[in-house]
Design goal:
The chain is α+β, with helices and mostly antiparallel strands and 272 residues long. It folds into 2 domains: 5-145, Fructose-1,6-Bisphosphatase, subunit A, domain 1 (Fructose-1,6-Bisphosphatase, Chain A, domain 1); 157-271, 3-Layer(aba) Sandwich (D-Maltodextrin-Binding Protein, domain 2). Helix content is 35%, strand content 25%. It contains 8 helices and 14 strands. The protein has helices at 5-24, 44-60, 91-96, 170-181, 193-201, 215-227, 241-244, 252-264, and strands spanning 33-37, 40-43, 65-68, 82-89, 102-108, 116-123, 128-133, 137-140, 143-145, 157-160, 186-188, 207-210, 231-233, 247-250. A 7-stranded mixed beta sheet has the order 3-4-5-6-7-8-9, sandwiched between helices. A 5-stranded mixed beta sheet has the order 11-10-12-14-13, with helices on both faces. Strand 6 (116-123) and strand 7 form a beta hairpin. The radius of gyration is 18 Å and the shape is globular. The N and C termini lie far apart (39 Å). The relative contact order is 0.13.
Length: 272
């Protein structure tokens, strides 16, 4: 696909960060990994990847905001477009040598809470590039992708993420998980929300649900899903997913079925 200069810059940043990360993959010393919170690790590779992405994006767009997972915030114009970046989504996989992780780059039209208009997810291990821009569709390695037209949960394959960092929510999550489990064909948990969302956009999964995501976990993937014909909301079917981090993403009919299932359980997003 032909994209904007912003998309070209994001793809360049993601690819170069991916090359940097591959240089560390499988060879990180334990001293280069630390816990920044319970069940939440960060490595030297994360920080160097973010610094590189920040340098490339702000070099191309010096007036933009930058919001990175590892604290790489920059920019003072609150109304400027904002880059929302996870320099290594799937760090826990990365540090253990599990080859399922990605670089995730999203961009808003203006302000950190503005409309998401661009998404890039790059998996350098599998050489998978997912890109989307507002109004232009979603693409995987240059080929247009769309969410499946599945009519409901029967036969569906979903992805999820376990709430390891917010264990107080485990009982509610397990209620939802059980209800979904009894309706669908399969559920996978691979450890990268960015790739889970990219896979929904490409039809590998029919939907995705997770609690407590951070903005950089979902910014790029949400654009991919939306531009492939899918729906991205909170667990009530509303728009609070970016603030609260509770996200449902799927094709329209699977999404509607997930929202109904959660409502039938008596679960409300604001209570999660």
């Amino acid at each position: 696909m032909e994209g904007s200069r912003a998309l070209e810059s994001a793809v360049e940043a993601a690819r170069r960060a991916g090359d940097l990360l591959l240089g560390y993959f499988g060879s990180l010393d334990p001293s280069e990994v630390e816990e920044k919170g319970r069940n939440d690790v960060v490595s030297r590779a994360d920080r160097e990847s973010e610094a590189l992405v920040k340098e490339i994006l702000l070099g191309a767009f010096p007036g933009d905001l930058f919001i990175g997972e590892e604290g790489g915030a920059a920019g003072s114009d609150a109304d400027a477009p904002a880059w929302i970046v996870d320099p290594l989504d799937g760090t826990a996989n990365f540090v253990r040598g599990f080859p399922h992780w990605a670089v995730s780059i999203g961009r808003t039209a203006g302000g950190r809470g503005g409309e998401l208009v661009l998404g890039v997810v790059w998996d350098p291990v599998k050489k998978d590039l997912f890109v989307a821009e507002k109004g232009a569709g979603s693409f995987r390695n240059g080929h247009r992708v769309r969410v499946p037209r599945r009519p409901g949960l029967a036969g569906a394959a979903l992805a999820t993420g376990f709430p390891f960092r917010i264990q107080a929510r485990i009982d509610t999550y397990l209620r939802i998980f059980k209800a979904v489990f009894l309706e669908v064909q399969s559920i996978r948990r691979a450890g990268s929300a960015a790739l889970d969302l990219a896979y929904v956009s490409a039809g590998i999964f029919d939907g995705f649900f997770e609690l407590g995501l951070s903005p950089w976990d979902s910014a790029a993937g949400a654009v991919l899903v939306s531009e492939s014909g899918g729906v991205v909301t909170d667990f009530d079917g509303g728009g609070a997913w970016r603030e609260r981090g509770n996200l449902l993403a799927a094709g329209p009919l699977v999404h509607a079925a997930l929202v109904k299932l959660v409502a039938d359980l008596g679960v409300r997003d604001a209570e999660l």
